[in-house]
Amino acid sequence: MSKIFGFDPIVDENSVVLILGSMPSVRSLEKAEYYAHPQNRFWRVVFELTGETETSDYEEKKKILLRHGIALWDTVGTCVREGSADSAIREIEANDIRGLLRSYPKIKAVFTNGKKSEEVFKRHFPDLKFNYLPSTSPANAAFSYKNLYRIWEKALKDSII
Predict the structure, then answer these.
(1) C-alpha span between 56 and 15 (Å, rounded)
(2) Catalytic site positions
(3) Domain edges within the chain
(4) Quick one: which of 62, 84, 144, 152 has the fewest CB in 10 Å?
(5) Mean pLDDT in the chain?
(6) 65-157-48 Cα angle (round to 5)
(7) What is the mean pLDDT of residues 64-86?
């Protein structure tokens, strides 16, 4: 197995929250898009939270995030992984989240999207504050969309523009 590399962050000087996944799925890496798997609920949550019209245009999706003060990145910068499962992630090199937060000082809240992101964040940035959110992954069948959305809405609604 060879190393895989994640994406650059989606962020700008107006970002006020940072959402951190773990590592893009095989499908996302193939398409070079965050949350590209059609069953991942991330974009559905974003559209509903922001009141924006759903679109499949990735450039427009990125603009929606930034328009609402949302930055997006992953806790894992590089790793070895077979398949897409977070449980298969090995040989982790974390992204420089501390450096990103220094570069974008308006970010006042950090959220991890799922258990693996939380685990990596705690291990590599034990001194930084964050909030855990249940994963939007289709593998997280324990949460119906309605319950997942309710938790994300409660956590993020007051933070985003």
Answers:
(1) 22
(2) 40
(3) 3-156
(4) 144
(5) 95
(6) 60
(7) 95
